[in-house]
Amino acid sequence: MCINGCRPITGFMGDSYYGEKRRGGAPLRYLITGGAGFIGTHLTKRLLNAGDDVIILDDFSAGEASHLSMLPARIIKGSVLSAELVSEITTDCDAIIHLAAVVGVRQAMNRTLETLTVSFRGTENVLQAATDTGTEIFIASSSAVYGKIKDVPVTEEADCLLGSSDKPSWTYSAGKLVEEHLATAYHREFGTEVKIGRFFNVIGPHQRSAHGMVVPTFINRALRGEPLIVYGTGHQTRTFAYIEDALDGLELILSKGKTGTSYNIGGTEEVTIQALADRIIHLTGSSSPIRTVQYTEAFDEQFEETLRRMPDISRLRSLGYEPQFSLDQALAGIICHFRTWGES
Ligand code: NAD
After folding, report:
1. What angle do helix axes 171-190 and 123-133 make, rounded to 10 degrees?
2. I need a surface site. Which of 42, 50, 140, 269 has the fewest CB within 10 A?
3. CA dihedral over 27, 29, 32, 36, signed as positive or negative
4. 172 an active-site residue?
5. Nearest CA, atom 4, ligand 1
């Protein structure tokens, strides 16, 4: 059976962890930077369903306004690069969830300077505003900070093994690592109430294939009977987290996490990209062939792949986290959504 009952939105999964923070039953007001993006849209719906207020700051470089059009959120079109705007909006917010970033390997490789600027300058603006107003803040980091580490599952204390700055494929990872260092420096030096979540390949409805995300790309192609393109050998692995599980993790970190600390947010099922393609073919009943293509054809010679990615989620589990959706359930839910609503 289809999770989400084929609805175009994710559902509120019961009493929010945020409920524990709500002061005397009054709604909390959240500022979500990058709130028009994939994770931000789901989070906005969840918070609004819980009775909270949401302000979204997004420059719509990748975000999608149509997903938010019927929602009672305040939407501000603007950039986190404007310190003045960020500072103005942050006044009278109870919490900031900082998601704004240039996301996706392809985008980051094509827009290296912007990727880095949004990471270091945008994140500093948000941290400064949070510090000035005493507002708690969540920073969205990524499994990309672990770089080329081969020993999995990775814990938060593991060394980060990034490739050379000659190679633009490391720009996104470097930007995310800078965000984390800024966050911990603000915490140490100014006592900023900041918590960091490292997302591992979040998937769900509304994720778009345009920027090369593997799951929506494979599902779209399978539903259209087009070949699924697997880069390299297909033996590289990923561990996917369904959006509802990822949001549970985010909520737990914000409400119960330790300040100045990072938490892996992810699933438990490591899968090769070849096996992912096979599963999507099976679940869609598609007759699409699977083709392998060398990285050099798809990206450029400088591209370096991460061979394995799987989180150790013990730290998040210690806050009460447990993923609820298997990979097959997540894929079935997304396929159902794509069949009914398309990629939108
Ligand atoms: P997304 O691209 O869908 O959302 C990012 C949003 O940020 C977009 O709406 C975009 O328009 C906005 N944005 C970009 N630059 C901006 C700027 N200068 N000012 C204001 N808004 C700006 O990506 P997502 O998947 O929702 O990711 C959200 C966050 O989670 C990002 O920080 C990303 O690095 C992190 N993350 C996501 C995943 C994942 O699997 N989706 C994995 C690891 C980390």
Report:
1. 20
2. 269
3. positive
4. yes
5. 37
Instruction: Tell me the average pLDDT across 183-190.
Output: 98
In this structure, which residue's CA is closest to atom 44 in ligand 1?
142
Rounded distance, CA 312 to CA 325, Å?
A: 17
Rounded to whole angstroms, how far apart are CA atoms 262 and 138?
10
pLDDT at residue 6 tops 50? no
Distance 104 CA to ligand 1 centre (A): 9
Task: Report d(CA 256, CA 20) in Å as an integer.
Answer: 10
Q: Average pLDDT in the 100-128 region?
A: 94
pTM more than 0.85: yes
All structural domains of the chain: 3-203+243-266+311-324 (3.40.50.720)
User: What residues are in contact with ligand 1 under a 6 Å CB criterion?
Assistant: 33-34, 36-40, 57-63, 79-81, 99-103, 118, 122, 140, 142, 199, 201-202
Please state the atom number of ligand 1 nearest to the C-alpha of residue 39.
Answer: 26
Give the span between the Cα atoms of 214 and 203, in whole angstroms: 9
